[in-house]
Write a structure and sequence with these properties.
Distance between the termini: 52 Å
Oligomer: single chain
Strand content: 5-15%
Radius of gyration: 29 Å
Order of helices and strands: HHHHHHHEHHHHHEEEHEHEHH
Shape: globular
Helix content: 40-55%
Number of helices: 16
């Protein structure tokens, strides 16, 4: 059951047990005004069609708690503790009065919040937040047009029927920045030997769970776990093991895993008996993952290859795939790949996938989404070399959009210097999207996704971009005040250094 709140409260209505009121200039108070709670509430309420059952927590509490967690870098339990101690946090999540005697919700509900606010819902929320500034500018422009005109002002040639001034709609305006990155998951670096050793240990635990004395077997099935462990450590402890010894160790571990899965008196045989022990849901899922892993490793071992489709690199998180990035630090990362569009400092997520993809195929869709959002095409697209294929060049030429980077063919005489300056300017402006990725991975949790489920990991990744866009929105609000104060200081102390506009 879900009960929609009657109305979103104001800062003046928040009740404190002591004298005084909350400061309306606090950053969390300002941040709460930037989120369209009412619009998001309409979509959130549709997730609870039934009017019976336990009453669910409001949207503001669910989304607000997740934003606090990602913005401050807390754990789920620490997030609830901080909310109990901070009245601004309690106002941000929608509580009507300060309470420190009981938590607003159990920390385990944070997982359910992430499941309910899935990838598609988070993308829609991010779109609303990014479009708020544009909607505010349009609203201010309509108010300006509806103001009464000065009688002495000369008439304007182009006037609509309602008295507003006709303005020619631009066909191309602004710049679109495109790039992609990987959000690595919190997993160890996978090797074939370590994966097979983990699979062997997990199958041994499953055999222990399935077997008991009432099955009618003379003795418990042998797994040779001590021998297998000793053979694994003999290679794993070497600093630089040779390829031949690694392959030999992999073959031995494959034999142990295959024996545990298929041989007589092991998992398949135990499952065929009526009175076998019960497996938990997680153990059943793990068993199916190990079967797929065994087939993949057996195929690569037989064909002497190191590539296979949909390769499993983590037994506990089988949805993770290797993403080859070719970076200097690590050539391959393990997590989700994210393609984004940046406009005026706001990041729009174009695609989020656990499978590797070529980000250049998203250019046309990103441009069409740009036109849908703003009503016109961008003047220029700033992207790296992978986007500059012939199809994208032809698409940009057809729609009269400048694509950054050198054009094909030999440059004309006298244009080399101008093009070099333009390329340098494009590179400097494109640093904004690279800096955004750096902030997300160093300041926030985009550099290591701690969520283990596929759905919750996608929700956490989207939350990172939502928090960064909210931070940018706050900067946009405070920037005029910052410039005003700097100019006052400059005039007061008669500083010669100009203030950046």
């Amino acid at each position: 059951m879900y009960r929609k709140p009657s109305a979103q409260m104001k800062i003046e209505d928040f009740v404190l047990p002591f004298e005084g009121k909350l400061n309306p200039e606090n950053r969390w108070v300002k941040l709460s005004k930037l989120i369209p709670w009412e619009e998001i509430e309409k979509n959130y309420a549709q997730l609870f069609p039934s009017s019976t059952g336990t009453e669910a927590k409001p949207l503001r509490m669910a989304l607000g708690a997740l934003i606090i967690k990602e913005k401050c870098g807390f754990s789920d339990r620490e997030t609830v503790e901080q909310i109990m101690e901070n009245p601004y946090f309690q106002f941000f999540i929608g509580l009507e009065h300060y309470q420190d005697d009981r938590p607003p919700f159990d920390p385990s509900l944070m997982v359910h919040f992430r499941k309910r606010l899935d990838k598609e819902t988070m993308m829609a929320i991010n779109e609303m937040i990014c479009q708020q500034e544009k909607q505010q500018v349009e609203a201010d422009g309509e108010t300006e047009n509806k103001k009464p005109k000065d009688p002495g002002e000369p008439p304007v040639s182009g006037v609509n029927q309602d008295g507003t001034t006709k303005t020619a709609q631009p066909t191309h305006k602004g710049k679109l920045l495109l790039d992609a990155t990987c959000a690595p998951a919190d997993v160890r670096y996978p090797t074939d030997l370590s994966l097979l050793n983990e699979a062997r240990e997990r199958t041994e635990a499953i055999i222990d769970a399935l077997y008991h004395v009432n099955l009618g077997l003379k003795k418990k099935p042998r797994t040779y776990r001590k021998k297998a462990r000793k053979q694994y450590l003999a290679v794993a402890k070497q600093r630089k093991p040779q390829k031949k010894s690694i392959r030999k160790a992999i073959g031995k571990q494959l034999g142990y895993v295959g024996r545990n899965l298929k041989t007589l008196k092991t998992i398949d045989n135990l499952l065929s008996l009526e009175a076998h022990g019960s497996l938990s849901r997680r153990q059943s899922q793990t068993l199916e993952t190990i079967r797929i892993l065994y087939q993949q490793q057996r195929t690569m071992y037989t064909l002497k290859k190191h590539q296979v489709d949909d390769r499993i690199v983590s037994i506990s998180q089988p949805h993770i795939r290797p993403i080859v990035r070719g970076k200097a630090k690590v050539s391959t990362e393990f997590g989700a790949k994210v393609a984004i569009s940046m406009v005026d400092g706001y990041m729009y997520v174009d695609e989020l996938s656990w499978d590797s993809f070529n980000e250049s195929i998203n250019l046309e869709q990103a441009v069409e989404d740009y036109k849908k959002r703003f009503g016109y095409y961008p003047e220029a697209i700033l992207a790296d070399q992978i986007y500059r294929n012939r199809d994208n060049r032809a698409f940009c030429k057809k729609n009269r959009i400048r694509l950054s980077g050198p054009a094909l063919g030999r440059p004309k005489a006298g244009e080399t210097k101008k093009k070099e300056q333009l390329e340098l300017q494009d590179m400097s402006e494109r640093n904004q999207v690279e800096g955004g990725f750096g902030v997300g991975k160093r300041r926030y949790g985009l550099g290591r996704i701690m969520a283990r489920l596929k759905e919750t990991a996608e929700s956490v990744i989207m939350l990172q971009f939502i928090v960064m866009n909210l931070e940018h929105r706050l900067k946009v609000l405070f920037y005029p005040i910052y410039v005003f104060l700097l100019r006052r200081i400059q005039r007061l102390f008669k500083l010669s250094r100009p203030v950046m506009d």
